[in-house]
Structures are given as structure tokens and as C-alpha cells.
Amino acid sequence: MRTSRRARRTLAVTAVALAGGAVGIGGVSLALWGDSERVTGAVADGYELFAVGAPGATTPTPAGTATFVVGPEAAAALARDGEVAVPIQVDSVSQGNKGLHYVLTPPQDWGGNLLGAADVAVFRVDTAAACSTDALAPGDPHPAGPWDSTPVPATYSTTTTPVTEYWCVYAAYDGPPVTGEYENTATVTATSPDGRQVTDEDSWNAVLVAGLDPAAEPDHEITLTYTTFRPGEEP
């Protein structure tokens, strides 16, 4: 059973336009691409964009791979509230006859600190607001990924308006993992005023848990790698 609600935060991200000359079109930075070899029925020049980040704060990537970082801030919210939901926004543009496909790969190992002790899931949502601590019901299956998406098909397009998709990183934490147990018994012997030996004892025990520090949480990178493709080369 969840003991807390509504822990949401937006993380700073290391994120994401193609190598080449960046051109501002319609309020976004688009990278110009050009093929030296023209193919019949395909446009050889156009613009493309792949940007990743917090909702409303995506950054174009200078290469084919972007990273979204989940780290100490998420761990602090997780320790405080017992659960946290972090939204990711992905913007995609590909003009001409080139489609755009990407793969999102979450960490396969969340380490040995708070996120490693939590139940973590990464999944698609329809909107940024849908990434909340209510997005995943207890017991819902959540495979580890990776996940893929083709937001832009390989049909002719001149649009500069990105196709926007959202993902959600959700973590639930029931406390630090148990590392062992401790038990001890103390016995006291004394002599009563009438000369008799009197003995008493008391026992106590404790559960030992891992000392997890949100400030020591490492940065966990969610990797998003994109490629473009021509008609007939659909991934």
C-alpha cells in the first residue's frame, strides 16, 4: 500500500539537433541535412530535430543520442514521499521523405542506493500531466525495456512542428532494505537484603537496515538514440 502521494519534479537533463548548420524555424532549432546521392521519388534535403528534456524544456541533440538524467533530486523526493514520478518530453521533426525512429533504454541496474532499493518503471504516457504517482497501480507489470517509437513516418513532409511524445519514470520506495538482525540479552544478579541471590534478565532486538543517502545517489542515464530512414526502410 502506498503511504504517500504526489511527488513530482522536473530534472535537469543533458539533452539534444543533428551535427550540421542549425537553422531557426518556427521557434525551434532544426538541423539541415543533405544527401550527396539523390534517390528517385525522395527529397534529398530537409530539416530534422530530435530534442529531449523536461516538459517545456527540451534541448536538441548534437548527435544521434540524448540522455535524460535521474539522480539525487529524484532520490530526495523518493525518500521524503515514498514515490516519485518524473516526466520526459521527446520532440521529433524530419522533413522530406525521411522518417524518424528512436529507442529509449532505461538503466538495467539502478545501483545500490535509494533508486536501487525502489520499484522503478519507465513507460509511455499521453501527456506530461499523466506522469504522476497515480499513473501506475500497485502490481501493474512494468517490463524493463528498452522501448522504441516511430513518431515521424517516411512520408513527404515540410512541417516544422515537432511530434511530441511523453514518457514517465516512476519509483516507489518502502524504506531501506534490511541487511540483518541484532538480538541481545542482559542478565543482572544481585543479593537481596535477606541474603538471597536475585537474578533478572532482559532481551531486545533490532533490524539492521542499509544507510541510504539521497545526496549520494548517482546520476542514472536514460538513453534515447534516434535514426532516420527512407521509404521502404521502415525499422
Key terms:
235 residues; 2 domains; SipW-cognate class signal peptide; mainly beta; rod-shaped; 4-stranded antiparallel beta sheet; 7-stranded antiparallel beta sheet
Describe this structure in words.
- This protein is mainly beta and 235 residues long.
- The chain has two domains: 22-176 and 214-229, no CATH class; 178-209, no CATH class.
- Helix content is 6%, strand content 47%.
- The strands form three sheets. Strands 1, 2, 3, 4, 6, 8 and 10 form a seven-stranded antiparallel β-sheet that branches.
- The chain is rod-shaped.
Task: Give the structure's gist in a few sentences.
This is SipW-cognate class signal peptide. The two termini are 41 Å apart. Helices cover 6% and strands 47% of the residues.
Secondary structure layout plus pairing:
Layout: E1 22-25, E2 28-34, E3 45-54, E4 57-60, E5 65-70, H1 72-81, E6 83-94, E7 99-105, H2 114-117, E8 119-125, E9 147-152, E10 163-172, E11 178-191, E12 197-209, E13 220-229
What fraction strand? over 45%
> What value does the Rg take, in angstroms?
27 Å
**Contiguous runs where pLDDT drops below 50 for at least 5 residues:** 1-29, 32-45, 177-182, 204-210
Q: How much helicity do the residues have?
A: under 10%
Secondary structure: number of strands: 13
Helix-strand string = EEEEEHEEHEEEEEE
